[in-house]
Write a structure and sequence with these properties.
This is CCHC-type domain-containing protein. Helices cover 65% and strands 0% of the residues. It is built from 13 helices and no strands.
Length: 293
């Protein structure tokens, strides 16, 4: 028993000390009144805000994207729209023409409505059900083709919004990857599996930009090499041109004078016999005639 008491004595001492601390009055400390930090409001006011979506005019093809942008704006800048009424007024401010004509009367008649009910009303009016049904199929068969990856990402996200389905990250990644070019698919194999879909698309854009720069530099170097090779080849195969022929060349001059003298002799006409090519002094007929006399 004595041994047990000795073993428990340290524990008992700690418990007693804890009880004494709890029973003893806490020392009174004067806490200065906290003044509101003047930088808090300044930092909040200087926070980078999302840009306002374009005002929706009632075109059904633009409705899914506009709704997505409005929801993102209200979520990111929620401190600017703390109440349901503030959110509804903001959504109304981002409409025009036909969309305003549809939404404003409904808000006046349903002033106690929620933002969710407002979106349900707009979905009924402007959501293209047939387009929404076609979007998943188009999304699964979408291909990059000869387009830039940025354009492919833009259309992929647009169809994803139109589909209105909550695709898992793995499904989105698989559909997106299958639409990429074969070369990009191979380069994207080493991309980490745990990154978000947004990070995955950004990685595809970055790799595509790097690949474009590499191909551009390669083509430029190839053209430079071909141009240099062509110049050296021309230098090797070029033969010296023969000297220009001169009109005063001796052989030509002699031949030319001979031809000229012969042509002039051929034009001479004998007045004794009337034939050309000789004169009367050398005319055979004239000599015969003189001998007979």
């Amino acid at each position: 028993m004595a041994q047990l008491v000795q073993l428990l004595s340290p524990i008992t001492a700690r418990l007693d000390a804890m009880e004494r601390r709890e029973l003893s009055p806490a020392p009174q400390t004067h806490t200065p009144e906290t003044q509101p930090d003047p930088t808090t409001y300044l930092e909040r006011s200087q926070k980078k805000r999302l840009p306002d979506p374009e005002r929706f005019d009632g075109d059904r093809s633009n409705y899914p994207g506009w709704k997505y942008e409005c929801e993102g704006k209200l979520e990111y800048d929620s401190h600017l729209y703390p109440s349901q009424d503030a959110k509804k007024r903001y959504i109304l401010s981002r409409t025009k023409e036909k969309a305003t004509q549809v939404l404003l009367p409904w808000l006046l008649e349903n002033q106690l409505s929620t933002v969710k009910e407002l979106w349900e009303h707009l979905d009924t009016q402007f959501l293209d059900v047939h387009r929404q049904k076609r979007a998943p199929n188009k999304l699964r068969h979408l291909k990059q083709g000869r387009r830039l990856v940025r354009d492919y990402v833009s259309e992929f996200n647009q169809l994803r919004v139109e589909a209105g389905q909550d695709f898992s990250k793995s499904v989105l990644r698989e559909m997106f990857s299958e639409g990429l070019s074969v070369e990009l698919q191979r380069l994207m194999l080493r991309t980490p599996k745990n990154i978000s879909f947004k990070e995955y698309t950004e990685e595809a854009i970055e790799i595509s930009d790097d690949l474009y720069r590499i191909n551009l530099n390669s083509r430029s170097q190839e053209r430079t090499s071909q141009r240099a090779h062509g110049i050296s080849h021309q230098k090797d195969t070029r033969t010296p041109s023969p000297p220009e022929k001169m009109d005063w060349e001796p052989t030509k001059a002699g031949k030319a004078s001979t031809r000229t003298s012969r042509s002039s002799v051929d034009q001479v006409k004998c007045y004794a016999c009337g034939e050309k090519g000789h004169i009367s002094k050398y005319c055979g007929r004239s000599s015969k005639a003189s001998s007979t006399k």
